[in-house]
Every structure is written in C-alpha cells, then in structure tokens.
Amino acid sequence: MLPDDLKSFYLTTDGILLTWNVQIEDSKIPVGKMELHPVAKLSKLSVSASTTDISNMISMADIDYTTDNDDEEGKPPHFDGRSRIFELDSCGGSGKVCLVYPTAVPGLPAQNSEIWFLDRSLNWNFVSESFTTYFRLMVLHMGLPQWQYSTTSIGLTPKAKQWCNLYAPVRLELDENLQTQDDIDIPIAKVDLAKVFKGKIPEKSLKTKPAGGNQKKKQPTQNIAGSKSMTSMRHLRGSKPWT
C-alpha cells in the first residue's frame, strides 16, 4: 500500500525524469538528473534466503545484520521478509533510493513507510520520513551528481562537492553544518538572567507603596443642596405667615 503523498504523485504523473546540462564552449556536459521510476518499474529488493553456492557468490542475505530488537525505531531495514523495499531511483549506479516499510507482516498491508538510501557499500542511510520531504530535498539539491551521499557518513566526493559549491552553495553549507552537529555535541550555555539584567531595571519600579496608615483618608463630601433646603425650612418655621 503506497503512502498518500506518493500515491498522489503517481496519480499526477507516472514517474519523472528531468535532466539539465552545462555548456562549456561548444560541448554540453550533463550535470543534474532528477528521476523517479514509473509504477511499472518499482522493483522490489528482497531475498528469501542465502544463495551461497559452489561458486561462493555472496548475496544480500549474507551481509544482512541480525539484531535482538527488530521493532526499535531508527534501525536500518532488512533485506529479507522483515522489511519491504522498493527502488525509486537507481542514482546512475552510485546507489539506490528506496521506499522502505521497516516492519512488515506477511499477509497484511505495509504501513509507516520511510525513504532510505543504499550506498555502494550496501549500507543503509536514512533520508526522510516521507516521500514529500525527499522530493523537496531532491529539488533543493537540483539533482546534482551523488547528492544523496550528503545524508551518509561518507559524505560527498570531491567532484560532487565542486558541483554543489557551484550551483547549490547554500544547500552544501547546510548539509555540512548538519553533519558537524551530528558528530559533535555542542554544550548549551546556561544564562543567569538575574545577573545579566542586574542594574538594568529602574529604581522607581522597584519601590513599593507603603502598606501602613500614611495614606490619606477621603473626607466625606457634604450635601450642599440638602443643607440649603434644611436652612430654608427652619427659616419658614420661625417666620410668621401674617407678617
């Protein structure tokens, strides 16, 4: 079962092949190549058992690793039935970009796919968690030769690094910084904010209002209209109506 993003891609176009050249004087030199196999050419990489025979030929089953915990995340895929692997790009013979289902159960649809790169030494290198992320990386690297080796511990070859330095210098710098961060653990400095901002706060904001009895009490307001009316009533009572 294909992931949703890869399924949408194949519903839009049955594979892709985009190449670009560089013209130097009168000759054209092929440089970039972005390729994804059509559905009919999605070949499955697997081996049922070791095929070592009299000729002492070594198969993928002979170089497969063994582990006690196959469900652990981040483990490379297996060449046998424990993983389902489909080739997306042959990378011109320099490796294979594969759609991998790390944990597959026989008889059930595979889920939780990832993108891995199988280099020439048959070592697995994790690339991305989704096809969409891999497609973006391919476009950002402009399909330069052997750009997939930027995800490996081997790194780019001198020739591939020259092409990246010419046409994708920003991406090359980002890839080198990511490799440096993975190899070296940079300590995180802890900052004491109280010491950094000491003396920066104005003294007025630090002063608080006293909580004692120095506050002025509000004087009750006199009802001027009421006092005038009482005075007039007293005056009327004391006066004689016939005078």
What is the spatial order of strands in the main beta sheet? 3-4-5-6
**Number of contiguous helices:** 8
Helix content range of the residues, please? Answer: 25-40%
Structural class: alpha+beta
Please, what is the average pLDDT? Answer: 76
H/E series: HEEHEEEEHHHHHH
Q: Uncertain runs with pLDDT below 50, 5 residues or more?
A: 49-54, 67-71, 184-189, 224-233
Shape, per Cα inertia axes: globular
Determine the strand fraction and express it as a percent band.
15-25%
Distance between the termini: 117 Å
Q: Could you give a short account of the major beta sheet?
A: 4 strands, antiparallel
Protein name: Knr4/Smi1-like domain-containing protein
Biased composition (Polar residues): 220-232
InterPro entries: TPGS2 (IPR039231)
Region (Disordered): 204-243
